[in-house]
Amino acid sequence: MTSSSYTIDLEPVGRRVQVGTKSTLLAAAQAAGVELVAVCGGIGSCGTCRVRLMTGELSPLTLIEEVELGLDEIAAGFRLACQARPVSDVRLDIPPESLTTPQRLQVEGQGVEVGLDPVVVPIDLHLSPPSLFDLRSDTTRLKAALAEQGFVIQTIALPVLAGLSEGLRAQDWSARLALRRVDGKAAKNLVAVLPPASPLLGLLAWRYAASMARRLRTWLQFCPRLAPCWGWLLTSAQPSSPPTWLTWSAGKPSPRMAP
Description:
By secondary structure, this protein is α+β, with helices and mostly antiparallel strands. A hairpin with a 5-residue loop joins strand 8 and strand 9. The chain contains seven helices and twelve strands.
């Protein structure tokens, strides 16, 4: 029993359409909203509406197709959409050159590798505890250990420096350091000393206007999902005034001095 309609799958655009037995593949594609290049209007003289049969059966080759398509293309399963008709359910592959530019933009993409260059980077470090043979300060030994890994510490903020020794001892001389790049240079600022493997999550934004800082705080309070369980929002009313960190805990901010 002959079917009165067939299913046409159009790849890679991912469209499917039911068409009658007398419909051409070009008409089927147009019915599915797929725009094929058909400069000649579908009479077969331009040869631009090439498609490749993947599964199923089509009507026999026409004389126009034998002229427009080469032997290699015919052997690979290529047909002219304006000439071929389905005689069963078929799946077609549409090459990019057969799609109009707007349609091609939906299926083509250009992959570009983008290297990550974060402003704040984590460094996991383990220091040997001080001994009678190593009487250097904790700061000196920390800088020396970082220098061995190729990091030059330009500054250590006073709050970080004040809690450095206690924090290192509490964490058995292991820590994750948060280093902030200084103006794109190799030198770094030590902005935090965290427990090992702590995630560096948070939003860091330098503020020059108190009004914008208030807006950011209000915005994050209404959007708690955008703030991590603990992170920092750096705000400052004036460029010369000391910045403050907002430490997020359970969705609520609490200010403290910035490192």
